[in-house]
Amino acid sequence: MTAASIRARVRAEMTEEIKATARRHLAADGANLSLRAVARELGMVSSAIYRYFASRDELLTALIVDAYNALGEAAERAEAAVDRADLLGRWLTACRAVRGWALEHPHEYALIYGSPVPGYAAPADTVPPASRVPVLITGILHDGFQAGRLAADQGEPVPEPLRPDLAALSEEVGVEVPPTLLARGMTAWLQLFGAVSFEVFGQLNNVIGERESFFEYQMRSAARVVGLEG
Amino acid sequence: MTAASIRARVRAEMTEEIKATARRHLAADGANLSLRAVARELGMVSSAIYRYFASRDELLTALIVDAYNALGEAAERAEAAVDRADLLGRWLTACRAVRGWALEHPHEYALIYGSPVPGYAAPADTVPPASRVPVLITGILHDGFQAGRLAADQGEPVPEPLRPDLAALSEEVGVEVPPTLLARGMTAWLQLFGAVSFEVFGQLNNVIGERESFFEYQMRSAARVVGLEG
DNA sequence: ACAAAGTCAAGAGCAGTGCTCTCAAAACGT
DNA sequence: ACGTTTTGAGAGCACTGCTCTTGACTTTGT
């Protein structure tokens, strides 16, 4: 049994090493990285990789799950260090963590928030890692609402047809937030990933030089829409 | 000279035909479409394509420019049909046109607003087509400001370091808009493309069913931040 | 202790890719 | 009509993802 564990452990290490190498190659070739190149760098032959990943897509899926988790954890850790009562601080800190991680790992960010890979369909096990950031944001909304510091109704009225979607969403996450507040939360969510994506994908090149100020302004503006006071 | 025109015209038609075929292949293979497959479908050999495009990247550039122009034109045409005094209507109409085009041409949209193609660097001639939508939005801001219906200062205060960027931007576009208003315009811009990207790239799957209501709500909310009254 | 079962890396091979080069046949300007 | 330019075809290079087979090694059941 201990012997089997050894083999299992070696296998796990090898798997991790392949992923690490692939992650490095991601920077050069994006989503269409070369399995053969990864194998070559690891001093093995391409067919050997298929012992660990059934296909290139499966390798990609592993990288995607890892990326979602890394991003989620970065946001969670940063946000957890902020005083629970400081709602605006929690929001801004989470935003900065997302942006920071994205700028540090632009190619992994592109993998999860960029254009979908052509033939690739994300399997179900990417969903929980993917929802870590949304869940985090929803938690801030929840706390603010419970404390009576976030109004349910405010700003643009929420269209009737949209409310069931929002109610189902709040239920799915397991956090109770009124649909009207959740709708504003999604505005902030769009604003966050819109800003990060534009910066990472180069849409801000030759447009905005002061990236930090710009991001800070946009996230504070989003917070204002939600109703988070400074 | 007329003879030369014939050859030139045939060449132009051939170029257009290659692009059209490539556009079709874009749907299946995304940014890494196959030159050979395109050639095969056109009944020619792969090397013949190099008479029209020096490389795959150059073909991609042509597709990118076309996509930016198509999107820009769709937005401009729709917006132009709205009463000039109806600022909110102009904004919402432009937004709907952008979303509509993106949903009709998801793969072309991914090409211009998705993750940047790995080895590819966008040449300078993509800039003017790319700025058609931003210019359009800026025009609405300008008209509203001139008419005294859009306040310069409102909402979140704009950080000092950001102002030169915004001033330069307004100058570059050739449309006079106060930096504070332009900052809110960029909020709306982020909101627009954040919403469209999330929908086209599948981030809203199993999250929002009522896409139209959701989009409408988000764009009205963005308009409110800018200061566009209904 | 030893054979059976399982696991692994390697190599050959298939069909495909972007791209370059050469060569013959058109189309063109004069 | 003649020399130039443009065009398509074909062969070829180095590369890709992936499959299948082979031989060596390790783990397991008895």
TrEMBL record, chains A, B:
SUPFAM superfamilies: Homeodomain-like (SSF46689), Tetracyclin repressor-like, C-terminal domain (SSF48498). Pfam families: TetR_C_33, TetR_N. Coiled coil: none annotated. The keyword Thylakoid does not apply. Residues 12-71 form the HTH tetR-type domain. Transmembrane segments: none annotated. GO terms for molecular function: DNA binding. Keywords: DNA-binding, Transcription, Transcription regulation. Residues 34-53 bind DNA. InterPro entries: Homeodomain-like_sf (IPR009057), HTH_TetR (IPR001647), MT1864/Rv1816-like_C (IPR025996), Tet_transcr_reg_TetR-rel_C_sf (IPR036271). This is TetR family transcriptional regulator. The lineage of its organism: Bacteria, Bacillati, Actinomycetota, Actinomycetes, Micromonosporales.
